[in-house]
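Consider a typical record:
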Amino acid sequence: SSPPSSPWDPCPLPKWDPDPIWQLPGRTPILILIMSVAGLKKQFYKASQLVSEKVGGAEGTKLDEDFKEMEKKVDLTSKAVAEILARTTEYLQPNPASRAKLTMLNTVSKIRGQVKNPGYPQSEGLLGESMMRYGKELGDDSNFGDALLDAGESMKRLAEVKDSLDIEVKQNFIDPLQNLCDKDLKEIQHHLKKLEGRRLDFDYKKKRQGKIPDEELRQALEKFEESKEVAETSMHNLLETDIEQVSQ
């Protein structure tokens, strides 16, 4: 706050006003209101252009063939990763209930910040534990009990082998694909969505050239070209490093 002025001050400092001129007491700040209106205006431009193209058959700015080919390959890559992840999980754990339990446990482990996700019990291991438990209860003098102990031990070893396989597949196959899906492909999708929005905005303003300021049209074109370059680079990097992704 401003320092207090003394009685003999020839030019006392004005009292500090907590409400600047652009802020109305008890109401939304004018600056935020202006920004909101500008945002709504831009959304209207995009929606209007989209309707003109979908319903009225208006021509929008065309992207070059190389860009469209990369976009097609990235889309196929995204679909392949999503389906392969689902099928791999089904292969590792065919039981839908166990898959649901595994998903829940993994979610809980992420919330708790655990580095190692908890596994799910193998059906062979559960069977082995039952066999060994009843084999011990029947005692050494029971042939059936001895058979249960031997079979149970074998089933538990089989469960350990399957656990090792699951861990190997998860660490070296599922996790890299999931990372690709959650980061690279998601980022590309964000860039493509932003590019489409800026293209619609540019085409709307280009169609009204002469009715809007030239500077506004120039800025719309610059933003469109900037988004196109960013999206193109991200797709190119993904497709060029597919060998590295496979080797991981």
Summary: The radius of gyration is 32 Å. The domain at 64-242 is CATH 1.20.1270.60 (Substrate Binding Domain Of Dnak; Chain:A; Domain 2). The chain has one domain: 64-242. The CA atoms of residues 18 and 130 lie 74 Å apart.
